[in-house]
UniProtKB/TrEMBL annotation:
Family statement: Belongs to the glycosyl hydrolase 16 family. CRH1 subfamily.
EC number: 3.2.1.14
EC top class named in words: hydrolase
Catalytic activity: Random endo-hydrolysis of N-acetyl-beta-D-glucosaminide (1->4)-beta-linkages in chitin and chitodextrins
The protein's name in its UniProt record: chitinase
Record keywords, A-Z: Cell wall, Cell wall biogenesis/degradation, Glycoprotein, Glycosidase, Glycosyltransferase, Hydrolase, Membrane, Secreted, Signal, Transferase, Transmembrane, Transmembrane helix
Function: Dual chitinase/transglycosylase that plays a role in cell wall architecture. Chitinase and transglycosylase activities are coupled. Required for the polysaccharide cross-linking at the septa and the cell wall. More specifically, transfers chitin to 1,6-beta-glucan in the cell wall.
Species of provenance: Cyphellophora attinorum
Subcellular location: Membrane; Secreted, Cell wall
One of the GO BP terms on file: fungal-type cell wall organization
Alphabetical list of InterPro entries matching this protein: Beta-glucanase-like, ConA-like_dom_sf, Glycosyl_Hydrlase_16
Record-annotated membrane-spanning stretches: 302-324
Entry keyword Nuclease: no
One function term, GO molecular function aspect: glycosyltransferase activity
Length: 409
């Protein structure tokens, strides 16, 4: 991932870092790279306390974004997590304002990045172990060989993790100004970036993300990020309250004219399809349930609570009534069953007594007719066991005996 390579420290900058620095189609290396979708408006604003990123405007490339009352949460909650989003639009100079709170945690890096297809780049990076400083950085055409681009800046007032600050870039073809809470803290002039060669000057998208620098395979990156990450301290949250982006041009598409990567080579097209921004071509209207709720007036909230309570109240009443009925019904049924049981018990006794009586009668008869001795023990053969009642239907224990009687021999 490019974020990783750009975050490389001043020390230990390996050749392998460059190998990871790639773009799907680098227009300075390959011809016919696709044009970039332009933002095309000078004030795209999204307030994450009110709205979610719409997928037409943002590409959540890694992980998932959660929305809390104070904004979009980029969380590292476990090893391997590193949520990252990027805009589907590009700006060709303009402004990028992000109101955010950096994540705590040694080795954790919060970041705002502007990145072009030919690897021009502008960064803001916060190291979790340092809550009073932010680093700014820039790259031209993926050139990471110079050691004087990164700079640390103190953030005054509440620290970077404790409260929201306004980090703004004001980018033109002449200079790049970095602002913290309305104050310019750094200015990079075109000519001061290796005579313009290292000056970011091509259409760029905007990326917001958090990543585990302390887990990097590169020792240099781990050191820069402040060291190993202690995952027993998760979660580490970077919270973005709002983003405002303004595109200096009102083109709908940026076309790569040649392979120089110079700003003069970029062609502005206005006849391409404009990006579909949510809402009034600026403010997003995609909302989470929580955001919809938060956005309701007090009166609407009360009305909803009242009706929900009404429904719940009615439900409770129905439930109690049913339980009560069920219990009464149960008691009633139980009594009937008990009565039946007792009745059946006594009938069974009567039946048995009857059987015993008949048995002794048969025995007496058998003795009278002088049945051979061997048959005496087989006396049961004279008496058939109870069979299905003649009237059928009723079970033997439900009064069948009484109703129709068992056939007997
Ligand atoms: C940008 O638009 C938002 C509303 O979408 C508005 O509140 C804000 O004032 C505008 N800012 C500028 C600089 O035009
Ligand atoms: C989102 O970004 C990823 C990573 O760059 C890319 O592979 C994917 O195609 C993008 N998704 C869309 C819908 O553009
Ligand atoms: C934060 O970083 C700055 C700049 O590198 C450094 O001067 C300061 O001592 C660091 N603070 C902590 C707590 O590491
Ligand atoms: C990369 O940047 C360094 C420092 O500014 C410069 O000396 C070198 O020529 C640049 N390389 C290229 C290929 O532009
Ligand atoms: C953030 O800072 C920029 C640059 O100073 C300023 O134009 C903008 O109004 C600020 N935004 C807010 C919300 O204060
Ligand atoms: C935007 O386009 C209109 C014509 O559609 C033009 O008059 C205006 O100057 C353009 N604005 C910028 C900032 O390019």
């Amino acid at each position: 991932m490019h974020l990783l390579t750009t975050a490389l420290p001043l020390l230990a900058l390996a050749g392998s870092a460059l190998a990871q620095t790639f773009s799907d189609c680098d227009p300075t290396k390959v011809g016919n790279c696709p044009p970039n979708q332009a933002l095309g408006v000078d004030n795209y604003t999204i307030d994450f306390t009110q709205n979610m990123m719409s997928k037409d405007v943002w590409n959540v490339t890694t992980g998932a974004i959660d929305y809390k009352d104070d904004g979009a949460t980029f969380r590292i909650g476990a090893k391997g997590e590193q949520p990252l989003v990027k805009t589907r639009f590009y700006i060709f100079f303009g402004q990028v304002e992000v109101i955010m709170k950096a994540a705590p945690g040694q080795g954790i890096v919060s970041s705002i990045v502007l990145q072009s297809d030919d690897l021009d780049e502008v960064d803001w990076e916060w190291i979790g172990g340092n809550s009073t400083y932010v680093q700014t950085n820039y790259f031209g055409k993926g050139n990471t060989t110079s050691f004087d681009r990164a700079a640390w800046h103190e953030v005054t007032g509440p620290d970077t993790q404790e409260d929201f600050h306004n980090y703004t870039l004001d980018w033109s073809k002449e200079k790049l100004d970095f602002y913290i809470d309305g104050k310019v803290i750094r200015t990079l002039k075109y000519e001061d970036a290796n005579g313009g060669k290292n000056y970011p000057q091509t259409p760029s998208d905007v990326r917001l993300g958090i990543w585990p620098g302390g887990d990097s395979a590169s020792e240099g990156t781990r050191d820069w990020a402040g060291g190993e990450i202690d995952y027993s301290k998760v979660p580490f949250d970077m919270v973005v309250k709002s983003v405002r982006v303004s595109d200096a041009s009102n083109a709908t598409e940026y076309v790569w004219g040649d392979r120089t990567g110079d700003w003069q080579s970029i062609q502005l097209k206005t006849d391409a399809k404009a990006i579909k921004l949510d809402g009034e071509n600026s403010q997003s209207t995609t909302q989470s349930v929580q955001q919809k709720w938060n956005g309701l007036s007090q009166t609407a909230k009360i009305a909803i609570i009242a009706s929900v309570c009404g429904v719940l109240g009615l439900g409770a009443a129905v439930f109690i009534f049913c339980c009560f009925k069920q219990r009464r019904l149960g008691k009633h049924e139980r009594l009937i069953e008990d009565a039946k049981f007792e009745k059946n018990q006594s009938e069974l006794m009567a039946y048995r007594a009857d059987m015993a009586r008949q048995r002794s009668e048969k025995l007496a008869q058998a003795q009278t007719y002088a049945v051979p001795a061997g048959h005496v023990g087989n006396i049961g053969a004279y008496i058939q066991p109870p069979r299905t009642p003649v009237n059928g239907g009723a079970s033997p224990l439900m009064g069948g005996y009484q109703q129709g009687g068992y056939q007997r021999y």
